[in-house]
Each structure stands twice: as C-alpha cells, then as structure tokens.
Design goal:
The complex is a heterodimer of chains A (321) and B (282). Chain A has eleven helices and 14 strands. Chain A is an alpha/beta fold. Chain B contains eleven helices and no strands. The chains are: A alpha/beta (321), B mainly alpha (282).
Chain lengths: 321, 282
C-alpha cells in the first residue's frame, strides 16, 4: 500500500494554544479518507499544513511522497485544494475561472483553454456559458471550485468541509463529483462534520478531537468498536422517558458509555445482543408501569460511534439529507 | 445536474523551469495573468469601472462650480487651476480604498489561499495587484486630467505634464502598499467602510482644496506635511498653477517631499505587508 499522505507526530500551536498535538495520519493512494471531528478539533489546521498554507511546528509531513516543509512548491504541483468556501472569482464565468487557474498552473494559452473545457465537462458545467459565477447555486459553485482544484489532475485532492452550507441537492451534486474523481484514481482527503458524508464517501475515517487522533478505521470498524447494537424504544409517557432509559439500559447491559439519549418519547440504549434481551427490556418496563409502543433493534450508527469517541453529541448545525 | 462518470482527462504536463531566470519568467507571466484577471473584471463590470472613473470628475465639477465661486486663492490665480491638481491628488488617495477592497475580498473568499496552494510564483499575487491598480489609476488620472482640460485647465507642456503624472503615480505606489497592508491586516470587509470615510478628513487636511495659509496655524503645519500636500504642490508647480501663499519648509521643498514621502510610505508598508503575508503561513 503506497501512502499518498503520511503524517507523523504533527504539532501546531498558536501562541500557547495547542491546535495539533501529535497527529499521525496515513492515506493510501487511491482511497478516500474523511477527517471527522467537532469544531476546533484541528481538521482545517491539518489540511492547511498538508496543503503548504501553514508551516508545521513539529513532526514529519509528506504528501505524494514529498516533504511539505522542504519542498512546498513540489507539493503544490501535486495537490488540489478545495477550501471551506468556494474560492472562485464571482465576477468571471466558469470557463474564465478555469482558464485563469490553468494559466496560473503554467499551462500555455491553448492548453489552458483545452483544460478548462475538459474540467467543465468533468464536473458537468459545460453549458453554463459566460454567466458570472455569482449567479450559480451553492452546489454548482462548489463543483466549479472542485474543478479549479483539478487543473493538474492532482495526486491528492483536499476537500475542506466541501458540503457545509449546501442544501441536500447541492450535497448530492458534490458527492457525485467526488465519486467520479475517486473512480478515476484520485486520492481524496476530506474533512467533514457530517457523519453521513463520511459514511457515504470514505474508505477510512479518522476522528480528530482536541488536536489528537481519537480513533481511526473504516466506518464499519468504528461502529463495531463502540459496541454492536442499539435498542430503540418508544414509550407512552414522555415524562418517564428518562426513567425508562435508565431501567432499559440496566436490563440491556450494553457496554458502558454516556447516558442514553432521550428525545421526547424515543429512548435509545446500547444492548449486548443475547437471546431474549428485547423481551426482558419490555417486560421490565411493563413491570415498572411504563407502556412501550414500539421497539427496534438495530446495529449502532457512525453517529453513535462518534458520540462515544468524542464524548459529546455531534455538532451538526443541520441534518443532512 | 449529474456529474459525468468519465475519468478526469490525463494531467497536462507542465515542465518546471529551472534556475532563477526560469523562475523570474514565471513570476512575470503569473503577475500578468493576475493583472489580466482585473482587466477581465473591468470588461465584465463596465458600470463599476465607469463609476470609479467618473466619481473624481464629479468631485472636480462640484468643487469648481458649487463651491468654487466662494473660493479665492491667496496670492492670486484662478481657483480652477488651483483645484485641478488637488482633485488629481484626491483621486490618488481614493486608490487606497480600491486596493484594500480587492485584497480583503480575495483573502476573505479564500482566493488568496487558493493562489498560495498553487505552484504559481507567490510574488505574482502582489505584483499583479500592483500592476492592475496602477493601470486603473493611470486610466482614472487620464480621464480626470482630460476633464480638467475640458473645464479650461491647461498643463504647462508635455514634459512637465509627464513629470506631474509620474509624481501622482509614485504617490499611488505608496498608497498601494498601504492598502495591501491594511487589507491583509483587517480581513473584515466592514472596515473598508471606515477607510472610505477616513479618506475624506485625510484629503481635506491638506492643500488639495484650500491653501494652508487660510487654516489655523498648527493645523496648517500638519496639512502642509501631509504626503498628499507635497504631491499636489509639486504638480501645481510643474503645471504652472497657483500654489497659494505662505507655507514653511515643507511647502518650499514640496517637490523633494513628493518623491521622499511615497518612497518612505512604500518602504514602510511594503515591509509590513510582506511580514503580514509571511504571517499567513504561521
């Protein structure tokens, strides 16, 4: 397995504040890695170091086999960066933007025009004519932004929260574009606050928390590691939901963790899967005089794994589609 | 819309030019590409360009015909001939805001970061900004000078006119670095408004519109030492226009100061701007 990104002991501090506290990261060539974490976990700082925008304080960082500190220019020739907001010229059209960025990648005039055309085809924007970018929707602008990061067909593409602030349609737009790239062999490192995004796109997930790697693995490994199954119960009396959660949690005897979440009459508890466990929980609740209207036994989601790893609910500002 | 499933076309191969001559050629080419982006903006937004060009003309017309009737130049001479170099100087000061807005916008939108993550010459981001702003200022000054000629102002021959133009653009270079530094410093588009407002007291605290001899003593001294005052006085002398009476050392040596001030401004703010720029990666 050839590493497209190799990070060892990366540290970065601003004054007294330690932002990255010894991050190790490997991204295999041709794979998609999602950096997941709450705000302030160090996701963007990591990407900025990997894309030569920030100098690391310590550690070894290689991108596409090149050391970012020793040869930043060489790294820049091998990467594409799509930042948190679409960094394209609002006044110009899609094609003009791509010609501009191609020229700045040192393609001659004709090659730049040809490359702009190819990239427009690639992200499905060939029919936008000369309309200024400011008239585009968020998702379309994002796709142009991604195309601008692909001028030299980078070995590694960095996407920093590529779908934050997009509506569900825009988010799907971006996901499709990323999948097409990955099918073409591009290595992608993306940061996201959306667990679903990581589940949809990533081969590997690396959870950052407080500037450290809190967990890593495939989405499946992460969910398995935090303990198998969840029992969702709908109880008849919202006033007793918390009491029901406590009781159900004791009977189900799942792995220890933060208190089970309660939303209205819906109670979710971790369970150790064994014969009769659902019946035991329902009978216990019945015995306590709490009626159960609905029961669902299911595997844990990445959401729940994330909650367990970071010890706090995810800080999504909106629910993804 | 759906993304096409086709694979990305093979990467264009770009030979890296080696050595410092190769790098220099890229630096120049990249700077011109960044400049061309601004020129494309003008083509795209001719309205904005026109407003930028005509606003100083409006100032000229307002001061000349609305206020000018009540103005007398101490020591004699027509207010019109006194005013035109003053408004030319004002137009140069307006450039500060244009530069700052461009820098703040590019940093705020992440375009500066995109440039910094690309294999282009880092100097080209700033050099392109300088070339584009100098080009637009040169155009603006030409339009304004033409308007001055239309209202009856006459420069004193081609040579002096070219020298005056050179001094105005030199001051523009000083304000350019000031604007780049401010743009990198504030990062907040709202603070551009503050600069837009502060430009006015700065311009009025000079001899651009009124001779300093009509001001209270200490204020006159401050106004006289304003970099704008030096350039405006130098332009007046070159164009054979009235300069007003009074004034101390700074007015007597205005032509010298019209060179020294912009150089000092450029050196100080270019140094600060470069440090600020390097600070982006810290």
């Amino acid at each position: 397995m050839e590493a497209a990104v190799q990070v060892r002991g990366l540290t970065k501090r601003y004054g007294d504040r330690v932002v990255l506290d010894g991050v190790d990261l490997d991204v295999a060539s041709g794979s998609v890695c999602a950096l997941l974490g709450p705000n302030g976990a160090g996701k963007t700082t990591t990407v900025r170091v990997l894309t030569t925008l920030l100098r690391p304080d310590g550690g070894r960082v290689e991108v596409a086999g090149v050391d970012v500190r020793a040869h930043p220019r060489e790294v820049r020739r091998r990467i594409g960066l799509v930042g948190q907001q679409p960094a394209v010229d609002d006044v110009l059209g899609a094609r003009e933007n791509l010609v501009l960025f191609s020229r700045l990648h040192h393609l001659d005039r004709r090659a730049a025009r040809r490359r702009a055309g190819e990239l427009l085809e690639l992200v499905g924007l060939a029919d936008t004519g000369s309309k200024p970018v400011r008239q585009f929707s968020g998702g379309i602008r994002r796709r142009l932004d991604i195309a601008a990061g692909l001028v030299l067909a980078p070995q590694v593409l960095f996407l920093d929260e590529p779908t934050t602030g997009l509506d569900p349609a825009g988010r799907r737009d971006v996901w499709e574009a990323v999948r097409a790239l990955v099918a073409g062999g591009t290595t992608v490192l993306l940061t996201t606050q959306y667990l679903e995004e990581a589940e949809q796109l990533a081969d590997d997930v690396c959870v950052l928390d407080g500037g450290r790697v809190a967990a890593r693995g495939t989405p499946r490994e992460l969910t398995a590691a935090v303990g198998g199954d969840r029992l969702e119960l709908v109880v008849d009396d919202p006033a007793r939901a918390t009491e029901a959660a406590d009781l159900a949690g004791r009977v189900a005897s799942g792995p220890p963790g933060p208190p089970p979440p309660v939303r209205g009459t819906r109670v979710t508890v971790a369970v150790a899967r064994r014969p009769g466990v659902v019946g035991d929980v329902v009978r216990a609740l019945d015995g306590a005089g709490i009626g159960v209207d609905d029961v669902l036994l299911r595997p844990a989601t990445l959401d729940e794994a994330y909650l367990r790893i970071t010890g706090r609910p995810d800080q999504r500002t909106e629910v993804p589609a | 819309m759906t993304a096409t499933a086709q694979l990305p076309a093979p990467a264009p191969v770009v030979p890296e030019r080696e050595g410092w001559t190769g790098r220099l050629r890229w630096a120049v080419a990249d700077a011109l590409t960044v400049t061309a982006r601004d020129v494309a903006h003008w083509r795209r937004q001719p309205g904005a360009l026109l407003v930028g060009l005509l606003f100083p003309v409006l100032m000229l017309v307002m001061f000349l015909y609305l206020l000018g009737g009540g103005m007398a130049v101490p020591g004699g001479g027509s207010y019109r001939d006194f005013l035109v170099p003053g408004v030319l100087g004002l137009a140069v000061v307006f450039g500060l805001e244009a530069t700052m807005t461009a820098v703040v916008t590019d940093v705020g939108r992440g375009i500066t970061d995109r440039f910094r993550s690309m294999p282009m010459a880092p100097s080209a981001v700033v050099a392109g900004r300088c070339l584009a702003d100098l080009a637009s200022s040169a155009l603006g000054l030409a339009v304004l000078a033409l308007a001055g000629v239309l209202v009856g102002w006459r420069p004193d021959g081609v040579g002096p006119a070219v020298a005056a133009f050179g001094l105005l653009l030199l001051l523009r270079v000083g304000f350019l670095w000031f604007g780049i530094w401010l743009g990198l410093l504030v990062r907040d588009p709202a603070s551009v408004t503050a600069v837009q407002i502060l430009v006015w007291p700065f311009a009025f605290l000079s001899n651009a519109f009124v001779a300093t001899s009509t001001m209270p003593g200490w204020l006159a001294t401050v106004a006289e030492w304003n970099p704008l005052a030096a350039t405006v006085t130098a332009v007046r002398r070159l164009s054979g226009d009235p300069v007003g009476t009074g004034g101390g050392w700074a007015t007597e040596h205005a032509t010298l100061l019209a060179v020294v001030w912009p150089v000092v401004l450029s050196v100080v703010f270019a140094t600060l701007a470069v440090r600020r720029w390097q600070g982006l990666s810290r």
